[in-house]
Each structure stands twice: as C-alpha cells, then as structure tokens.
Amino acid sequence: GAGVSQSPRYKVAKRGQDVALRCDPISGHVSLFWYQQALGQGPEFLTYFQNEAQLDKSGLPSDRFFAERPEGSVSTLKIQRTQQEDSAVYLCASSLALRFGVYNEQFFGPGTRLTVL
Amino acid sequence: KQEVTQIPAALSVPEGENLVLNCSFTDSAIYNLQWFRQDPGKGLTSLLLIQSSQREQTSGRLNASLDKSSGRSTLYIAASQPGDSATYLCAVGRGFQKLVFGTGTRLLVSP
C-alpha cells in the first residue's frame, strides 16, 4: 500500500479483556516500531522489529504487552487483561532499513485509539 | 535518559506571521532529529529529518536547524497559514532508531 495502515482505528474494551492491534507497514520496509501516545503527550517507544526479529522491547510497560512480526511484514501488538491505564493511541511506524548506522525516516500509521472502560 | 522539551507548549498567531518552535534535548549523542506534524485524531506526518552530521534542512516554508552541541533544534515556519494549525512534535533518534519525542507545540493560526 501507499502508507502504513493500522486496524482497528478505534477499539473499546472492558477492563480485563484481551485486545490485538494490527499494523501493516509500507511494503519492503525492514524496520517496524510501536509507540504509545497518551492524551496530550508525545508518543513513547514500546518495541522495535528488524524483519521478524524483535531487537528492542524495552519500552513495553508490563508483561501484559506482547508484540510479534512472524513473517517480517505485518505486526500485531497484543495487550492481555487490559487496564484503564492502557487507554491511549497506539502508533505503528516503519522505515526502510538500517544500513551502516544511517538513519532512515520513520513513516507513521494513523494509530489505533484504545479506550478501556 | 534522553529528555526532549518543546517550548512553547501552545502558540496562537495571526495568519502571515513567521514563527519559531523550539526543541531541546539533554543528551547530545543523537543520530538524527525529526520534526513531525500531528492533526487531531490523526497519525504523524514527517516534515523534516536532520541527520546528526547536518545543520539544517528546508522544505518549502519550513526550515529546521540542529545544534547538537547545545542540544537544540528550531523549526521555522514562514508566512504561516490557517492550514498550518496542528501539533508539532520533535523527536531525536539514537540506538536502534527508536525515537524519543517531546510533548509537542500546539499551533493555531487564525485567518
């Protein structure tokens, strides 16, 4: 596709439910990132994939958060036993590659707004 | 731990004014700095990307500068228009490309 797509765009969950958020990166982009954006704040890093390898998950707030990218393309962020503090916009971004330390621009999807009641 | 601060938090100007948004960061060991625009309910649109070896980047009415040694970047918007109204975020990248974001500047340009 032309850009990064995310689904669903909006998700309402009851506290304690599990949710799964999907990200389709730009075709051919090797790197994929998940960020969490609370209301009125800047996005905060959650986790990073290079192809199917999860190279950094230092930003995941608890073991209830899990991300995967099994075939190196589509990624899913799963949140188990959702809590009210998980309410936020979850943003996915992709970039072309990391070559010799050269940074590649990150392109963001529209985000999934999660509301936990 | 890298911290990114943006000043002002909000800015309201009449159409046609030139304006400057400020971004500062505490750790100068960065690979790059990126400026984004975010419209309400939308994702982030990349405006300008400055590599650590560069001093500035320009795109249309936008100019961004980077001073690594002082930990500062500015985004200059010339001849502002109502369509420029949005939240502007700066982010610095270091290590595995992850970005550390500021909290943004909410800009309102009035006709």
In a few lines, what is going on in this structure?
The complex is a heterodimer of chains A (about 120) and B (about 110). Chain A is mostly beta strands and about 120 residues long.
Unreliable stretches of chain B, pLDDT < 50, 5 or more residues? none
Largest interface: A-B, 30 and 25 residues
Number of strands of chain B: 11
Helix fraction bin of chain A: under 10%
- Terminal CA distance of chain B reads 41 Å
Look at the helices and sheets of chain B and give the structural class: mainly beta
Q: Count of DSSP helices of chain B? A: 0
Tell me what you see in this structure.
The complex is a heterodimer of chains A (117) and B (111). Chain A has 117 residues and is mainly β. In chain A, 0% of the residues lie in helices and 47% in strands. Chain A has strands at 5-7, 10-13, 19-24, 31-37, 44-50, 53-56, 65-68, 75-79, 88-95, 107-108, 112-116. The model of chain B has no long low-confidence stretch (mean pLDDT 93). In chain B, strand 9 (86-93) and strand 10 (99-101) form a beta hairpin. In chain B, the strands form two sheets. In chain B, strands 2, 4, 5, 9, 10 and 11 form a six-stranded mixed beta sheet that branches. In chain B, strands 1-3-8-7-6 form a five-stranded antiparallel beta sheet, with no helix packed on it. The termini of chain B are far apart. The chains are: A mainly beta (117), B mainly beta (111).
